[in-house]
Please model this.
Amino acid sequence: MPDWLIKILLAIYTKIPPAMRPALKDLFTKGVLRLEALAKRRQIVMGKRVEFLDFEIAHLVPFELLGPGPDEILVEAECSLISHGTERAVLCGLPGARRGFPYVPGYSTAGRVIKKGKAVKGIEIGDLVTGRIKHASHETVRADQVFKVPPGVTPEEASFIELGIIVLQGIRKAAIKPGEHVAVVGQGLIGQLANRLARLLTPTSLIAVAPSRNREQLALLPGGVDRYLSLNEDPACVHAIKADVVIEAVGTPQANVTAMYCAREGGRVVLLGSSRGLTRDWDLWGDAQKKRLTIIGAHISDMPEKDASPLRWTYAQEGRLFLELLQAGRLKVSDLITWRAKPEECNAVYEVLAEGGRNHVGITFNWQPNGVGK
Amino acid sequence: MEPLRIGIVGAGAIAQRNAKEAAASGAAKIAGVFDLNHKVARDMAKALSAPFFPSYEALLADSTIEAVLLSVPHYLHKPMTVEAASCGKHVLVEKPMANTLDEAREMIACCEKNRVQLTVNYSFRYLPKVQKARQLIQEGALGDITGIQIIAHQFKDRGYWSGARSNSPDDWRASKEKCGGGVLIMNVCHVIDYVSFITGLKGTRVYSEYATLGSPAEVEDIISVTARLSNGGIGSISASSIMRGADQAEERIWGTKGTIILDPEGLSLYSTRPIDGKRPGKLFRYAKFPNVSWTAEWVKGFTSAVRHGAKPAISSQEGWDNLAFISAAYQSMEKGVPVEVEPYPGPLQ
Model:
């Protein structure tokens, strides 16, 4: 839409009484969608999606979307996974995550292809795909931006795709060598996935560090960590860890500092959690410089589109690897799910999340009424 | 259910209304009328096709009368309740229960001793909007309640204080001794009761300031109360009977998940949760409610309790809790300190 038209429409919009604006905005959006559908000769599909209506308010809302274009597919969701940190940050307006409302959360969903564009190759109707898809019953996406799920991988497992990629790229940047001592700070979903992927790299010891013991049982499951340390019980325990590699999987300044305490002199600290917040309580000299730490930024946004190197694979490569690990049974994720929710329960789910998550680790929305996701 | 045979005591405007609604409820039969103003009482008895009694004693002596409905000045609640209970009559008494907690204690003890039921007319609980607000809160619309604000302002002219519009003119409403207090005990007591009913919360500690600034009366015509609630929340009341030309009547109840606003026309709800089929995060208005006689509902409930030997929905405990809160508010101002609300003493016999 040209700028001049946007300016005119905005000028008109600001003259409209606030109470009437949502209805008019809805009408306008629907009108534009219909015009677009006519112009592109595409169908309008009805769906439902989770929306954040305001701070700490989520609701399942009906919506309309365009059917697939030539290189797109229409995906009917089976299972979507909540990314606690990011979604909670937006929901609660935490530092670095301020967004306008309504906001449609979600970026890790598996579903069936129910329509495809004429130019789509390699994906057929009925195929299970997974990728960066919101918490919605239906979504039209570019076919080359999703992964075809290999046989033997369930929709529920496949819905971990984005979180799996996030952790894989971090673990790769950590360059863990067989025999190294590894610690994972934070035992939310990212931390628990980091435990399991780090375990595959045969460290000598793998230690989980978290405030409470609430997630200890999950962390000690087969394929997880060797030991679990609670900061609440012994805040000084971190100094005795002396890990070669520390994976920081929380994203708060306090967890960043804790991760540095856990590292040995000359160790590596991988910042995997999306860092949010500011601190003045960091002794850069004592905690990092004097210890000769190597601090590795490992955010998913730092992934190459192409030209992969041993320590930086592309998004597509990591995604395929994650699905292969699931297919081969080398990685288990379903046991990390602590709440399998219906989309209709999203208000309660996000209420719990806003309050801190009540120790839930993996929370999924199962979009099929018969629970096909499992 | 066999109707309760009720003797009507008092023939003022509220008494007339109570009697008509009680008769229309189907749960009561008006079995007698008494008022010191015999002419008014006779007319009322005739209109209700009920016998007139020339004295309270005569009415109580009638063995066919099972209960009395006392719509009399506040200072008469205690002696007339005690007298009726002593004659084995159940008692429906207008609000407030009494003027003091000592009086209330005596009323409770006497009713218990004589095994008769006592109820106080906090029938606004049966208003559909009040019932709806309670239902919404029970469904979790507000989460944990954090605050309550009651605003009640009106203007009472000189005629009100002298009883000029009453069919038996009397200035008892202006007397601290006879009325017990002003706008708080006379009017806002209803609101305190139904807000407590809606939320399930009570005031536990009270701070108050009050004064008489614009009325020919001994009792307060303006009051401000701050209270700690039983769940740790905070409540406040701002009330007066001297606000000219801009009446206010609004109750706000808010919690961790939403807000309910009650006003004379209905209620508004904002919740972060999808309650009552409503979209969360939006203010909704409930304005259409069925036309219900709250007095009739109160009488029906009491009749049912008497017939089944059960505790009435609005029992002496509800009456006590309300009066204890109001008494604490008055004491707070008089002593210049916060005052703890005296809990219900429990069975006294």
